[in-house]
Write a structure and sequence with these properties.
The protein is an alpha/beta fold. It is about 30% helix and about 25% strand. The protein is globular and about 55 Å long.
């Protein structure tokens, strides 16, 4: 036990939860007092697990490269974003932290045409550059820099439909005054920590901290803090 504690004390895990600049309410850039759900949960979680962390700021594509080559140690993803829920042999995953959903988003006028998820097959679908999608072999990606840009692209008919988390889509549609519809469900899962396998010995402490924060209501409180606003209702 003392050896394990010493190893944790000597470890500083590098991470990034920025995703795109538009991943509201999960991460809100340049808002130190209100950094988003993960912006607040991650430091609290790792402090509870007694593991030191170091935050980096990278866009999604560079984050994926960095965690795959070991320059970052963990991030948060949904296994539903990956084919067969497989995060890869380099990683282990934590217990579920919080639910997360993705939808096909489109204009209100086109909503009825996209109620069947199979309609994306062979179509040009708006996506966020660097994001994972479990079924990219089914459609042609049309990459944009953020969820904000997806909403603008749909409204300007640059693409007929896109894939987005429901909360970021609703936020930016309201912010930009560009109404959209949530059509077919694309994924319905949970965010987990994707941790490089060389740090797998830290997973019991991380999982224990997740359960503790959930039991104490901290996770639900932070979700409510950022999602009870009118824009998400």
């Amino acid at each position: 036990m003392l050896t394990c504690v010493a190893a944790m004390a000597d470890t500083v895990l590098k991470y990034n939860v920025n995703a795109s600049s538009g991943w509201v309410p999960y991460y809100i850039p340049h808002q130190d007092d209100k950094p988003g759900i993960l912006g607040e949960i991650v430091p609290l979680l790792m402090a509870t697990a007694q593991i030191d962390i170091q935050k980096h700021n990278l866009p999604p594509r560079r984050t994926n490269q960095a965690i795959e080559n070991g320059d970052l140690d963990f991030d948060f993803v949904s296994p539903d974003w990956f084919p067969n829920h497989d995060l890869g042999e380099l990683f282990v995953q934590s217990e579920p932290l919080m639910p997360i959903k993705e939808f096909i988003i489109t204009t209100q006028a086109n909503a009825d045409a996209w109620t069947d998820i199979n309609k994306i097959k062979g179509q040009r679908i708006g996506t966020v550059r660097g994001y994972y999608y479990h079924d990219t072999d089914q459609f042609t990606r049309v990459d944009f820099s953020s969820e904000r840009e997806l909403i603008k692209a749909i409204s300007k008919n640059r693409v007929q439909a896109a894939i987005s988390g429901d909360l970021p889509a609703l936020y930016w549609a309201k912010e930009l005054n560009m109404p959209i519809s949530l059509a077919a469900l694309h994924s319905d899962g949970y965010l987990v920590m994707r941790l490089r396998k060389e740090h797998a010995h830290l997973l019991p402490a991380i999982n224990s901290a997740i359960k503790q924060l959930q039991q104490q209501g901290n996770v639900e409180q932070l979700i409510d803090k950022y999602t009870k606003a009118e824009v998400f209702q």
